[in-house]
Every structure is written in C-alpha cells, then in structure tokens.
Design a protein that fits this description.
The chain contains eleven helices and 13 strands. It has helices at residues 16-30, 68-71, 112-127, 155-167, 185-197, 229-236, 254-258, 266-273, 277-314, 316-381, 383-387, and strands spanning 34-45, 51-57, 60-66, 83-93, 98-108, 146-150, 173-177, 210-215, 242-246, 261-262, 393-395, 413-418, 421-426. The strands form three sheets. It has a five-stranded mixed beta barrel with strand order 1-2-3-5-4. Strands 7-6-8-9-10 form a five-stranded parallel beta sheet. Belongs to the XseA family.
C-alpha cells in the first residue's frame, strides 16, 4: 500500500489492520524467504499439531510459528536450548500486531556452513538480476514437446511421467538423464540441460517448448547440487521456459529462484506444465457448441431470407399492384409535365403574338412596296406602252417577230401590231439602212 503525499506535520491516519498488512507486505518483498540460526526458547506443541516458540541469540529473539505440515517433516524432537537452523517467511500476526517467522523447515545447526554459502550465492545472483520477475516467462499452454532432466532411477521420473501421461498423453517427453546428487551432479545437470537446449523451439529433432528440472526430497546435502552457480547460470540461459521441481514444498534451491517457475514437488511441476486433458476436451466441446450455434444461426438467417423470397414469388399480384401504382405515378408525372409545358408554350405564344403580328404587318408592307416597284418595272417593259409611242410590232406568217429586212422578201405577208389593234400587210419592197 502506498500512502498519499502529505505535509510532514500531518501524518497519514492508518487503520490498524491496514497498517499491519502494509508492514507484512513490506516484509514479504524485502526479506522472504529467510534462513535463521539461533536457539529455541519456549517451545510448545498445540493439540492441532502446530508448534510455537522463539528463536534467539545474544542480541535478540523472534516469535516463530511452525504449522503441522512443516512440523511433520522435522526429523527430531525440538526442545528448548537446541541450536537450530530454520527457513521460512517473515509475516505479521495481525491479531496481536506481532512480528513472527512462519517456519517451513527446521533442522539442527550442523548444516550452518552450507546455509551461509547458499545465502551468499543467492544474494550475489539476485544482485545480478537472475531472479528478476521481469525475465520470467509464461509457460506454453500447449507444448509440442517437453524436456525432462532427472535421474533415470529416481521416483521423481515415475511421478512426472505418470502425471504427464494422465494430462497430456499425446505430447512427447524427451528425457535427458543426469545425476541429481553428489559432487559430479552439477556438471552432469548442466550437460543434460544443454542437450535439451539443442531441441528447444525449432531446433533439430523433436522440438520442445518446455523443460522440467526435477528431483525428489532429501536433506540439504542431498539437494545441494541444485545450489550450484554454474547450474544456475545455465538455467538462466534456457531458450524456453523452465520449471524447477526440486525436493518437497518446504525446500528451496538456487535453481528454484532462477527458473521461470518453481513447483513445490516434481509431480506439481508436471501438473503445472500441462492442463489436464479434460480441460482441453471441455474447451473443444465449448468451441464445438459455439460452432454449432453459429451454423444454426446462419441457417436460420438464410431460411428467413428464403421465406421472404418465396413470399414475393408466391404473390405476383402484389408485384403487379406495385407496378400499377408505379405506372399511375408515372402517368400523373407525365400529365403534369405536359400541362406545364403547354402552359409555358401558351404563355410564350401570348408574349410573342404582338411581336409576330407586328413583324407580319412589316413584312406585308415590304412585300406590297416591292410588288408595286416590280409592277412599275413591268409596266415600263410592256410592249404596249412602247406601241403607244408610235412603234409597231411585226410578225411573219409563222408568228415570229421580225427584226430585220432580211426576213421580209418581196410579197411576204406580215402582221403589224399597233397600240389599238392589228393590221395584215404585204411587203412590196424593202430598203436597207
């Protein structure tokens, strides 16, 4: 919990329970897990099987609680004055506001040197960032293959394989056998992991997407191979997520802190690696149900469209009625358009009629003037007008106009046309001018 910023003179007022939880959270992040060496004082065992005592030395003491599950794993009977080494987690007992250490494992102090070595290596690797949560990777939901590092003769192998066959029988398991105890075990574990790394992701051979590093329970000395620095760095270089399942639930190793995920037991590691087969079958059933529902909805929609199309085809009178209505609308629009155009043209004629009449009268007047002018011209060309001036028009017997004396032999009959009549003449003699 983060307190809001306030002036130094106005501290935040906490609820008691909230303050206890905040302190407990700070302890969890700062110290846990912890290992402590000291002397037992005030040891008591309740009827429930839980144990309560203090661990102390010459400079201080801490109240401890060891619950029945952890107490059942202790291989001796603790008594006041015993020098012990214990591992656990600091917390706050909210009912009394007491600091207490919840003990997860308890042993006599003979392994103290190993514990000091463990804590020094843990602190150094933690400072380098090998334990950072940011580098932890999620486990694949459906691994194509699983790599397994353990001893081929260990009970852990049987437990893991049994769990995997029960949950994911179709996923192949690639075993890289290795020693899990003794001085040669760390180097052998590193070699086994490196062999699996060659198959990781899209590597050659059977691809694997997950590695399980497991070993059953034992003493601190038995599990010490998993606290090796070279092994820890090799785990940190794993190209795929790696699950560490070493010892019992109360056992912690450096390998647990470096791995992407810690499992309390080898069997739990296998169960974390794969969802039960029934879960995936349920997922497939759900997907099949959704697919069926989607198909049925699609069929229903298409059936509805088919019904609508059939209804339109089955009642052509409706279509004819719609077409009849459409034709009536078109007729009305046509009549309206024609009447509008006729009115427009009538109005244009009414507007243009006076101009047309004026133009016609002007053209008639012009025609009359032209006709009078032409009449005067024709009158001037009329032979009778010429004859009235004393001229005569002669034609021969054939009716052809006589224009030369050469056409008139002596004795020829000619007709003379005068202004007021005609006279038949006979040529007695001709004279050339």
């Amino acid at each position: 919990m983060h307190a809001p910023l306030r002036p130094a003179t106005t501290p935040l007022v906490w609820q008691v329970g909230a303050l206890c939880r905040a302190i407990a959270g700070a302890l969890e992040q700062k110290f846990n897990p912890v290992a402590v060496r000291g002397e037992i004082s005030g040891f008591s065992r309740a009827s429930s099987g839980h144990c309560y005592f203090q661990i102390k030395d010459g400079q201080g003491q801490i109240r401890c609680a060891m619950f029945r599950r952890a107490a059942a794993l202790v291989d001796f009977s603790p008594r006041d004055g015993d020098l012990v080494e214990l591992r656990g987690r600091l917390s706050v007992y909210e009912a009394r506001g007491d600091l207490q250490l919840v003990v997860e494992s308890l042993q006599r102090a003979g392994a103290g040197a190993l514990m000091e070595q463990f804590l020094r290596l843990k602190a150094r690797l933690e400072a380098e960032g090998l334990f950072d949560a940011a580098r932890k990777r999620p486990l694949p939901a459906l691994p194509r293959g699983i790599g397994l590092v353990t001893s081929p003769g260990a009970a852990a192998l049987h437990d893991v394989v049994t769990a995997l066959r029960r949950r994911l029988p179709h996923v192949p398991v690639l075993l890289a056998p290795a020693l899990v105890q003794g001085a040669d075990a760390p180097a052998d574990l590193v070699r086994a992991l490196q062999r699996l790394y060659a198959h990781a992701g899209t590597g050659a051979g059977q691809p694997i997407d997950l590695i399980l590093l497991v070993r059953g329970g034992g003493s601190v000395e038995d599990l010490w191979a998993f606290n090796d620095e070279a092994l820890a760095r090799c785990i940190a270089q794993s190209p795929v997520p790696l699950v560490s399942g070493v010892g019992h639930e109360t056992d912690f190793s450096i390998a647990d802190f470096v791995a992407d995920l810690r499992a309390p037991t080898p069997t739990a590691a296998a169960e974390l690696a794969a969802q039960p087969r029934e879960v995936w079958l349920a997922v497939l059933d759900g997907m099949a149900t959704r697919l069926h529902d989607a198909a049925m909805r699609a069929l229903d929609q298409r059936a509805q469209r088919l019904d609508q199309a059939a209804a339109r085809l089955g009642r052509p009178s409706q279509g004819a009625g719609r077409q009849r209505l459409h034709l009536a609308q078109l007729e009305q629009r046509l009549r309206h358009g024609l009447s509008t155009q006729l009115a427009q043209r009538r109005h244009r004629l009414e507007v243009q009629q006076p101009r047309l009449q004026s133009a016609i009268q002007g053209r008639v007047q012009q025609a009359r003037q032209a006709l009078a002018h032409a009449a005067r011209g024709l009158e001037l060309l009329d032979p009778r007008v010429v004859l009235q001036r004393g001229y005569t028009w002669l034609t021969d017997a054939a009716g052809s106009t006589v224009t030369s004396v050469a056409q008139l032999p002596d004795g020829a009959a000619v007709r003379a046309t005068l202004a007021d009549g005609e006279a038949d003449l006979q040529v007695t003699k001709t004279h050339r001018v």
